Amino acid sequence: MDPGLGDNQATLASVDPESAEWLRTLSGTGVEREAAVERLHAILLRVASNEVRRRAPRLRLAGPELDDVAHQAAADALLAVTAKLGGFRGESRFTTWVYKFAVLEVSAKLGRHFWCDPRVSLEGEDWERLPDRFGFDPAERSERHDLLDALRRAVDEELTERQRQIFVAIVLKGVPADALAVELGTNRNAIYKTMFDARRKLRAVLVARGYLDIGTSRRS
Amino acid sequence: MNGWDELDRFLGTDPRDVGCAKAMDLLHVYVELVTRDPEATRRRYPGIVAHLRACGPCRDDFDGLLAAVSGNAG
Questions:
Q1: Interface mutation vs chain A, best among B13, B34, B42, B59, most A CBs within 10 Å
Q2: Nearest Cβ partner of A3 from B5, B44, B68?
Q3: What is the pTM of this model?
Q4: Is there a single domain that holds both residue A155 and residue A91?
Q5: Contact A219, A213 (CB under 8 A)
Q6: Which one of A124, A173, B45, B46 is most buried, counting C-beta atoms within 10 A?
Q7: By percentage, how much of chain B surpasses pLDDT 90?
């Protein structure tokens, strides 16, 4: 198991000088704290804006909407950081810890934005898209027709209703996990765990039926 | 990568995979260590490596945080 996080909050003596200064000023009061909060917000806005721009080519959002996402993400990240200051344990620089809040807020907000597009729906199933989703070209599609049919049967027959629902949304419809989590009232971790179990089950079924080898080795 | 490879990769699961919650808890620590010594970090955190290989959204967050740290956005 990977090493985990310790339980102890960072103390000023246990972190680098820059991080200690952030902790000291943000934990303080008055003008000094206000200045630190303002500086922190500027950093969060810069990180969130960069992150939105980095993801923009894959999004259906235009310039002003992207700016809105960045500003909302920075504002919410600022609230989260100041509320969770005691959760900083000093395993990284304070700024690295802070950047994470901005990046995760951008992720969450873009997940919610996905459903603003009226063309997006969880209704219906287009199984013809299955080969495209995995990048099968026409020749390979023909050659692997039996495998693809077996996969569809396994999805129908072996997955639980919840696993099937999430498989269809993510694989056939291309719904991002964060967007699906919003729609289903759950979180990314739960979606991932459901898909993890579904993937493992599907591989086992396809191995048992002779379409795949055990593990990830290729069938000749 | 052809369709078969992609399907094979999709159906592969790694028992070391720590899941999204643990990976996100440690992401700031992991990213900072990756910038210093990528190989040592990957050896120390095989569960996060396995997760980021399989989870697109968490990989995207990792890439974003790595870009922020590398660009020294502060």
A1: B13
A2: B44
A3: 0.88
A4: no
A5: yes
A6: B45
A7: 84
